[in-house]
Design goal:
This protein is of the alpha+beta class and 750 residues long. It has a domain of 336 residues: 3-Layer(aba) Sandwich (Rossmann fold), CATH 3.40.50. It is 17% helix and 33% strand. It is built from 12 helices and 44 strands. The chain is globular, with a radius of gyration of 26 Å.
Length: 750
C-alpha cells in the first residue's frame, strides 16, 4: 500500500515602466509588462471592506483569462530567450536529471518491485528483480521463459501507454503473494490518477480499473490471503476467499463531502463497489477535512482504517475490522483524542507511534477497549523528535531527528535497545521500510551534496548492502555541507544547512539561493535535489533554514508557527537571510529565494514584508490570497493549519499577512517570477494569476515581474524529465540572472 491578451484597458502607473537592463551581463531588453484590466469586486469581512481588482482571473476557463495567460507567457518567454546563461544551466541540469534512478523496493519473497528510470528515458517504469544479485535493465522475458535471476525486468512502461511524455506511472501496491500489482497512471502534475492492476503470473493488465481520482490508499488482497470479508454499509455481510475468486482491492477515495472506503472485487462493476466506511461513524459525522486511509495487516487478519482530521491532522482516530469473520463490525482502537496515532501490527499485537502526551513522540503497545493512558510504553519520549517507526524482522526501528540529522535506533518489541543504524556525515535517511516477517529492510541516505543510495539492511546480522546507487555526475568531494544556528527575531534558536563549493568567497560577493517551507509539521531535511546541485555547480551557495511550523522539533515547534503565530515562520526566514548577509556568504543583491506551495506563501510574505532584503524571488504554486484560499481546490483541508477568514478571529491575522492584500503601490519590489500551471489541482493557480498583475502594477523598481504558466506542470510529480529540465532551467536562469553584478549596481546606483 502507498499512502498536487493585450486588449485590456491600459493602466497608468509603475506597470508602464520598462524593466531595466540590470541582468548581470545579459542586457535583456524587456518592455513594460502586458496591461491587465481591473474589475474591482468588494467583499466585506466583519465590517472591513476589501477590494479585489483581479477577481475575474479566478475563472481559469474564460477566454479573457486564457488571453491573459498567453500574453504573460509571451512576456516571460521574451525574457528567457534573451538570458544567455540558460543554455549553460540546461547543460548542467540535463546529466543531473537524466540519470538512472530507483525507488525504494517492495519485497515479496525473493522478488523486489520498484520504480526505475533509465538515463535516456523521460519517465520511470515499474520493474521487478527476482533474486538479490544486481543486474542490468531488461524487458519482459520471451513468452514461456522466466526472467534471469538478478535481472531488472520491466513490468509497466508509461511510454507504451501514451505518446505524451508527461504521462507517468507509479507503483502503488503488490499483493502479499506477489500475484497482483496495482499501479497509478497520472497526466502531468495533477493529483488525480487512474488505478490499474497487473496479473504478475500472466503479465496481463486486468480489465478492472479505478477511474482518475484522488486516492488516499490502495491495498490488494488475493484469493490466497488468510481471509477477505466485507460487510457493506447496508446489507448482509459477504465473504470471498475461495479459489474461484480473483481477489480485490480496498481503496479510499477523497471527495469534497468526505473520504470513502470501498472494496472492489475483481470481475465486478466499480459502480457497484460496496461502501465499507465513511460519512459517519461512532455517532460522529465525517467531514471533507477528515482524510481516511485503509490497509490490511500483513497477515490478512484485519482491515485497519485511520481517520486523519485535517492537514496536517490534529487528531487521528483508528478503527479495525476482523476480516476472518463474516459478521464482524468495526471496532475502535483509539477515538476522540486530540493526538496523532500511527498503527503497526505485529505478532498479534497492536503498536502505535504517537504524540499523545509526548510532543516529541513515543511508541506504545495499544490495547483495544482500553484508554491510551493505560497502554504500555515501549519506547518513551526523548529529547529528539521521533520522525518515524517501523517493525521489520520482528524488531522495532525508531527514526529520530537530532537537530534535523537522521538517527535510527533498534529495539525489541518489548522496548529493549539492541543497536542502531548509523549514518556518515550530515544527511537525510528514510528510516527502515519492510515487512514484519521479512529478514531484510531498506533505507535511503542522501544529502544536499550526495545523491541518494538505497541500502538493504539485514535485521539479523546488521549487514548493509547497496541495492541501488545512481551514477550521478556530481563530485561530492568538491563541495561542503555544514549546519549553522542563528537567532530569530524573538531569540529562538534556528538551525540551517548551508552547502556550496569548497573555497567560495566569504566577502558578500557570491550568489546564494535560500529556500524554505515552515508548515504542516513537515521537516525540511538536507536531501538531494538536482535543482540545488545545479545551482551549486554554477558557483552559488545554497541554504535551507528549518523554520518553525515544521516538524523538526516536534509538535511544540509545529504549533509555534500555526494560526496567529504564522508570523514566526516569516521572521525565522528573514533572520536566516540577515545571518547569511552578516556572515558575508552573500549580500542582498546576490540573494535569491525560492519556495513552492506553503513555501510559495512564504515567498509572498517575503516580497510584501521585506522587499528590501532579497534580490530575486521564485514563487512556485503559491498560496497568496489567504482570505479566499479555503474556497478552492483542497484549501478547506488546510484550515487546521492557517484558520479561515470566515471566522472573525482568524480574519484579523490572515488579513495582516496575506500577500495579496498587502501589495503596496510604489514599492520597489525585487525581481519576481510566479510559477504555476493548469495541472495544479491542489493549490489553485488563481493565486499566481491574480498576484502577477497586482505586483506588476505596484512595483516602482523596474525589476521584472513574470508569470511562468504551464499547461502540464502541477503540484504532484509526473512531468517528463525533459519538461522538468526546461522548468528548472527557467527557474535557475531567472534567479541567476537577477542576482548578477549588474543587479548590485541597480540596487546601489550611487
Amino acid at each position: 500500500m502507498r499512502l498536487l491578451l493585450p486588449f485590456f484597458l491600459l493602466l497608468v502607473g509603475p506597470a508602464l515602466v520598462a524593466a531595466q537592463a540590470i541582468h548581470g551581463g545579459d542586457h535583456i531588453n524587456l518592455p513594460a509588462p502586458p496591461p491587465t484590466d481591473k474589475d474591482p469586486v468588494v467583499d466585506t469581512y466583519f465590517g472591513t471592506r476589501i477590494t479585489d481588482d483581479y477577481r475575474w482571473l479566478e475563472d481559469a476557463k474564460s477566454a479573457e483569462t486564457r488571453a491573459f495567460i498567453d500574453a504573460q507567457m509571451a512576456y516571460t518567454d521574451r525574457y528567457l530567450k534573451q538570458a544567455r546563461v540558460r543554455p549553460e544551466l540546461v547543460d548542467k541540469l540535463d546529466p543531473l536529471i537524466h540519470v538512472t534512478s530507483w525507488s525504494m523496493p517492495i519485497q515479496r519473497g525473493d522478488s523486489y518491485f520498484f520504480m526505475k528510470g533509465l538515463s535516456d528515458e523521460e519517465q520511470s517504469s515499474i520493474y521487478v528483480r527476482h533474486g538479490w544479485a544486481t543486474g542490468a535493465s531488461g524487458g519482459l522475458p520471451p513468452k514461456g521463459q522466466t526472467a534471469e535471476r538478478g535481472k531488472d525486468v520491466r513490468l509497466v512502461d508509461p511510454a507504451a501507454l501514451s505518446r505524451d511524455p508527461n504521462t507517468s506511472v507509479s507503483l502503488l501496491a503488490v499483493s502479499q503473494d506477489a500475484s497482483l500489482l496495482a499501479y497509478g497512471v497520472r497526466q502531468g502534475g495533477a493529483d488525480e490518477q487512474e488505478v490499474h492492476f497487473l496479473n504478475l503470473k500472466t503479465g496481463k493488465t486486468l480489465e478492472d480499473s479505478l477511474p482518475a481520482d484522488r486516492y488516499n490508499s490502495i491495498d490488494l488482497v488475493t484469493s490466497s490471503a488468510k481471509g477477505m470479508v466485507h460487510k457493506p454499509a447496508q446489507g448482509k455481510a459477504q465473504a470471498f476467499n475461495g479459489s474461484q475468486d480473483a481477489g480485490g482491492v480496498y481503496y479510499s477515495r477523497f471527495t469534497h463531502k468526505g473520504s470513502l472506503v470501498y472494496l472492489h472485487k475483481f470481475g465486478t462493476r466499480v459502480s457497484a463497489d460496496p461502501l465499507l466506511f465513511g460519512r459517519e461513524f461512532h455517532s460522529e459525522p465525517l467531514e471533507e477535512r477528515d482524510l481516511i486511509s485503509a490497509h490490511v495487516t500483513e497477515d490478512g487478519h484485519y482491515l485497519v482504517v485511520e481517520i486523519h482530521r485535517g492537514v496536517p491532522a490534529s487528531r487521528v482516530d483508528v478503527v479495525f475490522r476482523d476480516l476472518t469473520k463474516p459478521d464482524a463490525v468495526f471496532e475502535i482502537l483509539v477515538w476522540g483524542f486530540e493526538s496523532r496515532f500511527e498503527t503497526m501490527y505485529a505478532d498479534g499485537e497492536w503498536y502505535v507511534r504517537t504524540d499523545y502526551r509526548a510532543s516529541n513522540g513515543c511508541v506504545l503497545k495499544a490495547m483495544p477497549g482500553i484508554a491510551p493512558e493505560a497502554w504500555h510504553v515501549i519506547v518513551p519520549e526523548g529529547k529528539d523528535v521521533m520522525d518515524g517507526a517501523s517493525i521489520v524482522g520482528h524488531k522495532l526501528f525508531v527514526h529520530r531527528l537530532k537537530d534535523v540529522k537522521s538517527d535510527t535506533e533498534i529495539y525489541t518489541l518489548q522496548g529493549k535497545s539492541v543497536g542502531s543504524i548509523r549514518y556518515e556525515g550530515i544527511g537525510d535517511a528514510s528510516g527502515l521500510s519492510g515487512e514484519v516477517a521479512d529478514r531484510y529492510g531498506f533505507f535511503t541516505f542522501q544529502s544536499l551534496i550526495q545523491p541518494p543510495t538505497i541500502d538493504r539492511y539485514d535485521t539479523v546480522t546488521g549487514k548493509q548492502e547497496v541495492f541501488a546507487q545512481p551514477r550521478t555526475p556530481f563530485d561530492s568531494s568538491e563541495y561542503e555541507l555544514k549546519q549553522v544556528f542563528y537567532k530569530s527575531k524573538d531569540g529562538t534558536r534556528i538551525p540551517m544547512f548551508v552547502a556550496g563549493k569548497k573555497g567560495l568567497p566569504m566577502d558578500g560577493s557570491a550568489r546564494l539561493l535560500m529556500t524554505g517551507y515552515g508548515g504542516f509539521n513537515l521537516s525540511e531535511t538536507p536531501a538531494w535535489n538536482p535543482l540545488w546541485a545545479a545551482w551549486m555547480e554554477q558557483g552559488g551557495w545554497f541554504a535551507l533554514p528549518n523554520l518553525r511550523a515544521g516538524g523538526e522539533y516536534g509538535e511544540t515547534w509545529h504549533k509555534a508557527g500555526m494560526f496567529e503565530k504564522k508570523q514566526n515562520v516569516f521572521d525565522d526566514f528573514y533572520a536566516a537571510a540577515e545571518y547569511l548577509i552578516a556572515e558575508k556568504y552573500t549580500s542582498t543583491p546576490h540573494l535569491a529565494i525560492s519556495g513552492r506551495s506553503n513555501g510559495g506563501l512564504l515567498m509572498g510574505a517575503a516580497m510584501t514584508q521585506r522587499p528590501d532584503l532579497f534580490g530575486a524571488i521564485w514563487c512556485g504554486y503559491p498560496l497568496l490570497d489567504m482570505l479566499r484560499y479555503q474556497k478552492f481546490e483542497m484549501g478547506r483541508l488546510w484550515t487546521t493549519e492557517y484558520g479561515s477568514a470566515e471566522n472573525e478571529k482568524d480574519f484579523a491575522y490572515l488579513r495582516k499577512y496575506s500577500p495579496y492584500q498587502n501589495v503596496k503601490a510604489g514599492t520597489a519590489y525585487p525581481a519576481i517570477m510566479f510559477f504555476t500551471g493548469d495541472s495544479d489541482t491542489r493549490v489553485d493557480p488563481l493565486h499566481a494569476r491574480k498576484m502577477t498583475p497586482l505586483v506588476q502594477a505596484a512595483s516602482s523598481s523596474g525589476r521584472p515581474v513574470l508569470l511562468h504558466y504551464s499547461v502540464k506542470s502541477g503540484h504532484s510529480a509526473g512531468v517528463a524529465a525533459g519538461q522538468l529540465i526546461e522548468d528548472y532551467a527557467d527557474q535557475l536562469t531567472f534567479l541567476w540572472t537577477e542576482t548578477g553584478s549588474a543587479a548590485q549596481k541597480a540596487a546601489n546606483p550611487k
